[in-house]
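Why should sequence recovery work at all? Because a backbone constrains its sequence more than one might expect. Tight turns favour small or flexible residues, buried strands favour hydrophobic ones, and helices have their own preferences. The token representation captures these environments compactly. In the example below, the structure is given first.
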């Protein structure tokens, strides 16, 4: 069976009040002007965190009544569960934006100061609960869904930067047996890994940003890497403390020039044609320093046709991570190796556990996928279905 590896450098039920201890709510957030849904909105209070999915939907559970809504480029909102419950949709207003040309100037001294302050701006050691959703598509059809709720121990030690304690998990995969390829997800070491562009190897330019408290800096590699690609992306940086609050990078600018790789024991050829990563950091109100709050990975692998497959296709992988609570110093009882394929995790599923957890709601596309799995679960000769819920 063929294995595809990414090498990286680096059924929800809602109620208004979950029980006497927790408030619980599910709503949609949209742009006030366009009425379009807003993704990656931070929903939080002093204790708990959540975020919106691509349809602008969120679920937020907390023992505190306060709710804050925050998204870079938009005016923040502060309210309560009771007030939010009365709204069908929460609308957020974009800050005033004046479109201007990119500013060409020497930004290296500013970026150097940002890098110099990184050690003091970010919390080196902490524990955070997190939610991670992994979705794999074959072309436009979902074949894998995995949700993980776990604890991460973030360590400053370079050899042991993360410890993972999986608290609960739900997953299912749905493949046609005749066309199946054993896809391997990145491990946690790869997912949490990353890089920042070296000053002497990148061109930095500034783009005007619609928030006076931040600067948006674009970067692009001066030369092609060994794969003949130019990496590019951007920072959003706090003007007051020089902290990077958002980072985006795209590793491939011309994927059609990438060579195909051939597996040792198979004639199947493939190449990775997209790798994009978005990272956001929140500031701890108690420590006045930053921690990882959200991370998104989008990648694509192109697989050529061969004797077993009549047509070429693409695998599209998305990994959505966000912290679900304020950071702590709790001990992590590690039960899953950080260098192991994430989808190989084997843990039981508990519906009761998921009922009161901050998590991404299922999109309509994911609901259709689960319906398709249910309708075909007995067709074992045609399909291979693996799942725990």
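From this structural description, the recovered sequence reads:
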């Amino acid at each position: 069976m063929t294995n595809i590896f990414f090498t990286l450098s680096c059924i929800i039920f809602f109620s208004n009040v979950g029980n006497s201890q927790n408030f619980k709510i599910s709503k949609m957030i949209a742009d006030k002007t366009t009425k379009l849904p807003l993704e990656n909105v931070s929903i939080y209070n002093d204790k708990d965190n959540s975020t919106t999915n691509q349809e602008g939907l969120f679920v937020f559970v907390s023992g505190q009544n306060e709710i804050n809504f925050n998204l870079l480029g938009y005016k923040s909102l502060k309210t309560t569960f009771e007030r939010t419950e009365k709204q069908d949709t929460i609308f957020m207003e974009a800050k005033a934006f004046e479109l201007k040309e990119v500013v060409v100037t020497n930004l290296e001294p500013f970026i150097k100061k940002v890098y110099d302050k990184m050690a003091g701006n970010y919390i080196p050691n902490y524990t955070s609960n997190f939610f991670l959703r992994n979705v794999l598509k074959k072309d436009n059809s979902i074949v894998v869904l995995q949700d993980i709720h776990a604890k991460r121990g973030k360590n400053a030690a370079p050899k042991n930067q993360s410890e993972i304690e999986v608290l609960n998990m739900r997953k299912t995969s749905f493949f046609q047996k005749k066309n199946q390829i054993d896809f391997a997800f990145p491990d946690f070491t790869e997912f949490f890994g990353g890089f920042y562009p070296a000053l002497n190897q990148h061109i930095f330019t500034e783009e005007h940003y619609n928030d006076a408290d931040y600067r948006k800096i674009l970067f692009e590699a001066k030369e092609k890497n060994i794969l003949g690609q130019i990496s590019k992306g951007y920072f959003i940086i706090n003007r007051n403390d020089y902290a990077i609050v958002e980072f985006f990078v795209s590793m491939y600018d011309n994927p059609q020039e990438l060579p195909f790789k051939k597996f040792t024991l198979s004639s199947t050829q493939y190449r990775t044609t997209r790798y994009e990563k978005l990272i956001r950091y929140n500031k701890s109100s108690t420590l006045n320093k930053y921690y990882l709050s959200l991370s998104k990975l989008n990648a694509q692998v192109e697989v050529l046709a061969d004797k077993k497959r009549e047509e070429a296709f693409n695998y599209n992988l998305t990994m959505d991570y966000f912290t679900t609570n304020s950071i702590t110093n709790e001990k992590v009882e590690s039960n899953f190796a950080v260098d192991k394929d994430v989808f190989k995790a084997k843990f039981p599923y508990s519906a009761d556990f998921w009922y009161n957890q901050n998590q991404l709601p299922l999109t309509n596309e994911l609901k259709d996928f689960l319906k398709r799995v249910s309708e075909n679960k007995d067709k074992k000769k045609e399909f291979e279905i693996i799942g725990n819920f």
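A few observations help interpret the result. The chain is about 10% helix and 40% strand.
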